[in-house]
């Protein structure tokens, strides 16, 4: 834990561990080619990634004023321009994902058939990751800099998959991203069971239906960078289209640049909300491996319980006999329901990653 963690049990982690370092020349050997300083590099926001091509938005926006920059820009009547870029060699093997803030050099005009170069990756505030499966510790970054994970679940048709929701919550807590349950198709079933399941965890939720009022959703999304996940058929496209009236156009624009159609797209796409803020629409998730998850990170999201783990044996899974959390709860320091819920979340890592 870093010295900046203060009194908060919520661990602030470093996400730029593999940041680009300009290596000094070996020994005293003079370097034959000096790398330009890239003082003229322009900041950009990565909105789509496809086969080595990055669609970046350039122009007085998110890169200057954060996720809420859109409003200022709109007030000034400026539109950001999409620029296609490739990564510069100096970035090394570092992955760049949707949501990343980068710096571009070269042709940043955004004119057809031009290609800029990404020379810098800004430090990230968060990274949503998954692994291929629960035994695989190799994590795949999905989206950078998100501060909210919107778990879109239909109340019926298709029926909710609580274990998948649990797993997504674990991923959110691990990444220090706030979860939001968005329960769709409220015209088909009541949300009571799901709400009862997630209330002890303090997970906020919203209930929506097609054609219904989306104001509460907008309120939760405004001025933030939210990732939307949900499996096929839950009504995520319906929701996105309701929130971003020209979503179809924005996505097809991105796909015109990357050369992919909407339904073949296997990558996430960032869309700006009319009221400020961004949503990142991800393709339907079928599985969400949690092999990379650090239990302590998940626990950190529950301060009352995290505090009680000081008496746990080293490497405690917090699920066995030796765990001190039972005593902690018995002493009244935390709510038994939240401990049971936390244990259920931790247990969701057992079994196949695509189970219900
Ligand atoms: N009854 C009901 N049907 C809905 C609601 N929202 C969406 N649907 C329907 O559910 C189906 C799936 O909706 P989509 O928005 O395409 O779902 P999706 O999650 O984007 O699914 P994919 O396109 O497969 O990724 C469509 O037939 C929608 O019309 C709702 O609130 N109530
Ligand atoms: Zn324990």
UniProtKB/TrEMBL annotation:
The keyword Zinc applies. Keywords: Cytoplasm, GTP-binding, Hydrolase, Metal-binding, Nucleotide-binding, Ribosome biogenesis, RNA-binding, rRNA-binding, Zinc. It is an enzyme of class 3 (hydrolase). Residues 144-286 form the EngC GTPase domain. It holds the Pfam family RsgA_GTPase. Belongs to the TRAFAC class YlqF/YawG GTPase family. RsgA subfamily. Monomer. Associates with 30S ribosomal subunit, binds 16S rRNA. This is Small ribosomal subunit biogenesis GTPase RsgA. It comes from Sphaerisporangium dianthi.
